[in-house]
Each structure stands twice: as C-alpha cells, then as structure tokens.
Amino acid sequence: MDLGIKGLRVLVTAGAGGIGLKVAEAFTSEGASVYTCDIDPSALDALGKAHPGIGSSVCDVSDRTAVAKLFDEAIKTLGGLDCLVNNAGIAGPTGPVHEIDPEQWDRCLEVCLTGQFNCARLAVAHLRRSSNPSIINLSSAAGRFGFPNRSPYAAAKWGVVGFTKTLSMELGQYGIRCNAILPGTVEGKRIRDVIEAKAKIAGRAASEVQDDWLAKASIREMIQPEQLADMILFLASTRGRTLSGQAISIDGDLQALL
C-alpha cells in the first residue's frame, strides 16, 4: 500500500534502537525524511553507518535545553516538520510503591511524560505550517491498566493518554492530529528486563511470568516493534486524516497486566 508519505518530515525521539529504530526505518522505507535522537552516542553512530540518510543527534528529552537544541538541528536538517513521534521512554524501577526510590520515580516521569511535553510544545509552531501535521505519542498497556510493582511507569503512561487527548482538543483547530499508541508486551530488551525484575520479586522463573502475561491476552504472542511502526505510519499519512484523540491498543486484546 502506498501511504503517500514520500517527503514527509519526521522527528522520532529515541530512534537509535528498539521501537524507535523500527519506526525510523519504516518511515525511511516509505520515502520520508527522518531525524532522530538518542542518549546513546554509540547507538547513533551505528545508526548513521546503517542509515546515512537519517539525521541524528544526542538528546535527553527530559533536558529542555537539549530538546531546544534538538529542534534547531532537526528543523534545519528537515526544512520543517510534519510529524513528531514521541517515542523516548525508560522502564523505570520495579517494586512496591513504598519501596520506590523517589529519585527513580521522578526520573521515570521526567523522561516518559515530561519529555513528551518538552518536545510537543516546540513542535506545534512548525506543525502549524504543515499540510499534513500529526503527533504520535507512545504510551503503553500500562496506560490502560493497573500495573503492580510498576507504579512510576504506569503513572507516566496514563499521563501520556491524558496529554494526548488534551493535545488533540487544543490542536485540532490547526489540523494537527494527536494520537497515542498503547503497546502490549513488545519483544525487546526492555520488556525482558522488566519480566526478569518482576520474576525476581515473585521468586519465579521469568518464563513463567511471561507465560502468565500472555495468558491475559486473546492473541498470546509477543508484539513485534514493526507492528507499532505500521500503525504509526498509517496515522501519519493522509489516510489517517480524521483519526485524532485516540488511544490505540496494539496488544493482542490484553485484559490485564500482572
């Protein structure tokens, strides 16, 4: 399917690995112009060698000065902005709420929620000049369910949904579409680390915890990052021109998080 996004100017945060890399690659394969950032310089070096056409720079999205510099560099490289994909996030700590280190709580919300605000607020002026503007925020199934022993992450991801719906209401007058993606159990290092941490707390094998998670879904398989990229590209295309304010679950019909 030709999505008609050739030449679309896209900024993807945390695009040197994981979900962000698959999103950046997918946009590039459709002829979009992509700029990305990451906190890992070595990962960005590897990205540059594999995809020399993707512009990139080091940025921690929780740092407003760094985000301002990122936008200066991205807009200069892309010549404008049509789509912001707020992908950057961290797993945060695992443990009961009364044992969570307050600094780890703060850090999780700073990156996963405030980082999206830091980017969105600077994107608006540029998106208003686009003929096909959109913002896609990465939330999580943890933004729809309670998530025991993962309170900072769940709080941040619920916040992303509220932020997204409010952005949609505020920015619709400018034709800017705003949607959130809520992935389920996505294959990758981050979820493996979370499963290991939760298994340790429960005194169980990681494979047992994973099986229990998947048993809560109708489609009992891990979500592939490419599936998220496919939906994000659709939302950024004109085929998704009336989709806004939505929290779209890609989770195999997950019913709960454990």
User: What proportion of the residues form beta strands (DSSP E)?
Assistant: 5-15%
Could you report the average pLDDT, rounded to the nearest whole number? 95
Low-pLDDT runs of 5+ residues are none
CATH second-level architecture: 3-Layer(aba) Sandwich
Treating each run of at least 4 consecutive H or I residues as one helix, how many helices?
8
Classification by helices and strands = alpha/beta
Q: Distance between the terminal alpha carbons, to the nearest Å?
A: 37 Å
Largest sheet: 7 strands, parallel
Order of helices and strands: EHEHEHEHEHEHHHE
Compute the number of strand runs. Answer: 7
CATH-wise, what's the superfamily?
NAD(P)-binding Rossmann-like Domain
**Domain module tally:** 1
Largest beta sheet: strand ordering = 3-2-1-4-5-6-7
What does this structure look like?
The chain is α/β, with parallel strands linked by helices and 258 residues long. The protein has helices at residues 18-29, 41-50, 64-78, 102-127, 151-171, 189-202, 206-215, 225-236; strands at residues 9-12, 33-38, 55-58, 83-86, 134-138, 177-183, 247-250. The protein has one domain: NAD(P)-binding Rossmann-like Domain (Rossmann fold, 3-Layer(aba) Sandwich), CATH 3.40.50.720. Helix 4 (102-127) runs parallel beside helix 5. The chain is globular and about 55 Å long. The termini are far apart.
